[in-house]
Amino acid sequence: MRRELNRAFHTALLITVSFNAVAAQQALRWGADPSGGAPYVFTDPAHPDQYIGYEKEMVDLLAAAMGRHPEFVPSDWETLVSALQRNSFDVIVNGLEPTGDRAQQIIFSKPYYIFQLQLTVRKDENRIHSLSDCSKHTVATLGNTAASRMLQQQNIPFRSYEDPPGAYRDLELKRIDAVLMDVPAEAFYARNNPKLKPAGPPFFRGLYVIGLRKGDDKLKAEVDAAIDKIIIDGSLEQILKKWGLWNDAQVEFQTSIRQGVKAELGHIDMTTATFNWRDALLRLTRAAIVTVLIAFGSMLIAVVLGLPLAVGQSNGPKIVRSFCTVYVEFFRGTPVLVQLLFLYFGLPAIGIAMPGWLTALVGLGLNYAAYESQVYRAALEAIPKGQWEAAYSLGMNPVLAFRRIILPQAFRIALPAMTNDFVSLFKDTSVAFAISVWELATAYRELANASGQFLLLGVAVSIFYLAMSLPMAHLARRLEDRLRNRVPETVDLEEVAA
Amino acid sequence: MIRVTDLRKHFGPTQILKGISFEVAPQTVVGVIGSSGSGKTTLLRCLNGLERINSGTVECGKVRLEAKLSKAEYRHRVRDLRREVGTVFQHFYLFPHLSVLANITEAPVHVLRRDRKSAETEAYELLESVGLKTAAQRYPESLSGGEQQRVAIARALAMRPAVLLFDEPTSALDPKRTVSLRTMLRGFVTRGHTMIIISHSIGFLNGLADKLIYMDSGEIVEQGPAEQILNDASDARTRDFVSQAS
Ligand SMILES: Nc1ncnc2c1ncn2[C@@H]1O[C@H](COP(=O)(O)OP(=O)(O)OP(=O)(O)O)[C@@H](O)[C@H]1O
Ligand SMILES: [Mg+2]
User: What is the CATH number of domain A113-206?
Assistant: First the structure.
């Protein structure tokens, strides 16, 4: 007992001491997106509490060369630049490419890696052999990368993904036809996949640099010196070899550094898609159209499907009644986001792979059908029993009475609530960004992250939403007015009657 | 025209109608009187199939409802019955989403499958006969109670029923309108309709009904020619009711 206590005390002391020693060193806080981030930095499958990756190892070396201790700040790829500006960390090390947009917001270190792009297709693909065959096929890539900008410039239809695994999985599921990705990620996620194959050789040369806050010139000098050091002493070469990333491009690049040639950004292709408003508005418009289509499509499903649900739940036989109740409670009781993720990622397991926009449309439709059914139910119950009886007494059968007498009145009662639901459905289309559908919210996130124009783009996107939802509310009000009974005319009927 | 034999109706354990029998001759008016809760409305609802009878028969024209019929057969006969019988409810139950004209043409067009043009022409004639021709395009909400009632009458007549059932037709009318309603209904009788009218107003039935039925707690206490019930009832309860009501 006493010995154990003693040991615990010693351990505690040891931890404190070593902690102090580390704390004495300055930290190098570095930000990167570890989700689907192999081989840059990612969660070690063998030790889920640890991060591994070639850039992780590289940062360890850099930090050592700088006399600092590395501190990893897991972050989100799309928001790396703004997180850096908010001082969440000191440097971005995440296969970051220098671009004109980013140059306006942050500064860059020397390059440390030359990357290439690789186009990947399904094994049975025989139409696509290079990027030039893709003008009529959808190509997937990561948002806000050299690859995505190249696709945009060449007017190739593309979809942005959050991480490489998602893109390659959708390629397998035939939701898209090709993936364009930086070679490091392609090598890790696609090269050994038996269902996929490369389309043509790697092409294009771009640079990975480290991103720093503007004004952090002292740190930049430190980082640049450290990069030179690990290239010249060959330790970076070792890491790259270990990760299978050593190739001709690196040989050329590192040799020139060792010979004292300054790496000039001009030597290498740079995808300088600078942000321009005309382009952004065009893409926002496209996103707005997608948003509208999803909203209308899913409202149609909801309005149509809600009716049998309502009738089934109120008047159906017992089985139908309990089915409808379970349906309604399930869709109202679980988050729509989870439902979408399930439809998108879960259903392919049983062979149903819908494209993202269709998933969003169907998912939101199924979800809102549950809400509409309750609106209908309340409306139907609000119709006096006498309306049914009057219809029956005139010889109508239940179906005719329902269709001609009850439903129109219920619709009139339900309309305000339905309008409300439609407006919120309209806004709920934004959850589709979770399954990479290019609707307004996704567009805002991507464009704003690429440009840093969170404020102005935010205003623009809000205007888009309002420009669509206000006319809708107005239309609905007009419809309500039309359905409401007309103002009585000023004819004295009593006189006519007498 | 109508023959009701030993009609019984209960809701749960409570007997509401305890063996009702009466007949209505064609082109006559039968008034049903009786205190509140005596079962008049329930009787009426049995006569147009809104309540299923528990025992006895209802015959109307060629249709014969029997308590012992299977559910499907009963429903089938109720459908036929409703071709013979039109109902004007106490609260009218006009269709608020339809114009006056559409209220009247709705059933002829969709149930009888008559063509809309001729249904509308006839609807205008009916509206004229109830004195509401100019209201065709208005909506029920904007009509007075008396006007709504006349639309309800026209709506029922548009199905050309042989028999009209009325539940408390005078409850929404002032004395002057009561008199003009009586005149109007008399007119419909001369044109061939038969009527059963529930009313609390003896004054209204006096001169309109050919025959009166006095009900009390689910039973017919006395029935006979209106003259006799009003002036010379044989049962003391009837005499009491009539003298108190008039
Ligand atoms: N659906 C029902 N369930 C249970 N009881 C009912 C139902 N309908 C009517 N009753 C009962 O049957 C009795 C007769 O009702 P009914 O409406 O036929 O009376 P009434 O003679 O029309 O009365 P009033 O002159 O007040 O209109 C009442 O006691 C009423 O409470
Ligand atoms: Mg009554």
Answer: 3.40.190.10
Dig out the tokens for A188 from the structure. 């890790």
Distance from CA of A391 to the nearest CA of B (A): 8
Distances, alpha carbon B144 to alpha carbons A239, B140, B177, in Å: 92, 8, 12
- What's this model's pTM, rounded to 2 decimal places? 0.73
Tens of pLDDT, residues B59-105: 999 999 999 999 999 999 999 999 999 999 999 999 999 999 999 99
Domain ranges for chain A? 2-93+214-258, 113-206, 277-497
Three-state SS at A72? strand
Superfamily grouping for domain A2-93+214-258: Periplasmic binding protein-like II (3.40.190.10)
> For residue range A234-259, what is the model confidence (pLDDT) as tens digits?
999 999 999 989 988 899 889 888 88
DSSP A186-251: HHHHTTT-TTEEE-S--EEEEEEEEEEETT-HHHHHHHHHHHHHHHHTSHHHHHHHHTT---HHHH
DSSP A97-131: PP-HHHHTTEEEEEEEEEEEEEEEEETT--S-SSG
Answer for the pair A181, A164: CB distance below 8 angstroms, yes or no.
Answer: yes
What tokens appear for A173 in the block? 């599921």
CA atoms within 13 A on the CB side of B22: 23
User: Which residue, among A315, A305, A302, has the nearest Cα to A401 in the 3D structure?
Assistant: A315
The CA–CA distances, whole Å, from A487 to A95, A413, A495, B10, B201 equal 69, 19, 20, 45, 35
Q: Of all atoms in ligand 1, which is nearest to the CA of residue B40?
A: 21
3-class DSSP state for residue A51? strand
> Is the Cβ pair B95, A387 closer than 8 Å?
yes
- Predicted confidence at residue B188, as pLDDT, reads 93
Residue B93: which of A386, A412, A498 has the nearest Cβ? A386
Fold held by B2-91+155-245: Rossmann fold (3.40.50)
Structure tokens, A481: 């007015």
Select from A396, A486, A494 the Cβ nearest to the Cβ of B107.
A396
Task: Answer for the pair A294, A429: CB distance below 8 angstroms, yes or no.
Answer: yes
Closest CA to A122 of A176, A47, A160: A176
Class at the top of the CATH hierarchy for domain A277-497: mainly alpha
